[in-house]
Amino acid sequence: MGKVADLHVHTNISDGTFTPEKVVEYARMQGLDAISITDHDTCAAIAPAIKAAGGAGLEIIPGVELTAELDDDEIHVLGYFIDWQDEAFTKKLEELCRVREERAKEILRKLSEQGIDLKYDDLMDIAGHGPGSVGRLHIANLLYQKGKISCVRDAFTKYIGNDSPAYVKKFKLSPKESVDMIKSVGGVAVLAHPKTINTETRPLKDIVRSLTGEGIQGIEVYHSDNNAKDSREFKEIADELGLLITGGSDCHGLGKKEVLLGKVKVSYELVEKLKQASYLA
């Protein structure tokens, strides 16, 4: 297969559990030649990851993952080869992170109404105090740490999952706003994990076609949650609509059942096509 990459990796700067340095170490152990750090609403992990990689043996592709709202449902948009140091882009991400922190505080308030009192400072100790770091997974871990639940998954089923008593809706961009943000800094906008998209009202192909009209340039064909049939379907859609193909593990460190980093390895040829589509070409 030649050189391989994992193009969807999170760190503890957003909702993963591995530091950027640990991600780099683990990626090397998995024999990866390139990874993309795609934290939610922040690029703060990119610099330490590049430093840890040391410019040899592992390429760090600057990325980000943004949340958008489509027909009252949530989709995620990955941005690759972005100019992650652009000042206007950074300020916009900081605003999204501020909203994320306000959401966390509101979730804690709702948990208090359920008789569960958690301190925001304790939450930030778990989240790492990084920009954009705090999310529902950190609240779930705090609930577990304080003995309020028997396992992390219970936090979502009982308290903070969608339609649960302490759920707070997340602020979302429109698909076009998220795509425009990514393209404004020379990046390539890719639809993340299409398997999670609600297809009750219209077929996935129609949804993806409409998103191409909003500027989406690629689709994440390969993902840890996909079976072979899923990936074939997504590749057929990508080929039919002329979209770029990507793939990644969506690793959150120990935040999921297992460490997924390197479980999805795509050919470096896909990385080269992304690079050609960005302003780095």
Quaternary: single chain
- Strand percent estimate: 15-25%
- From the spread of the alpha carbons, the general shape counts as globular
Question: Order of helices and strands, N to C?
Answer: EHEHEEHHHHHEHEHEEH
Helicity, in percent? 40-55%
Question: What would your notes on this structure say?
Answer:
Helix 1 (20-29) crosses helix 2 and helix 5 crosses helix 6 (152-160). It is globular and about 55 Å long. The model has no long low-confidence stretch (mean pLDDT 91). An 8-stranded mixed β-sheet has the order 7-6-5-4-3-2-1-8. It has 10 helices and 8 strands. It is of the alpha/beta class.
Structure summarized in a few sentences:
It is built from 10 helices and 8 strands.
Question: Secondary-structure blueprint of this entry?
Answer:
Blueprint lengths: L3 E6 L10 H10 L4 E4 L8 H8 L5 E12 L2 E8 L6 H27 L6 H8 L8 H10 L6 H9 L14 H10 L3 E4 L12 H10 L4 E6 L4 H14 L2 E5 L17 E2 H10 L4
Parallel strand pairs: 1-2, 2-3, 5-6, 6-7
Antiparallel strand pairs: 1-8, 3-4, 4-5
Helix pairs in contact: 1-2, 4-5, 5-6
Name the descriptors.
alpha/beta, 17% strand, 281 residues, 8 strands
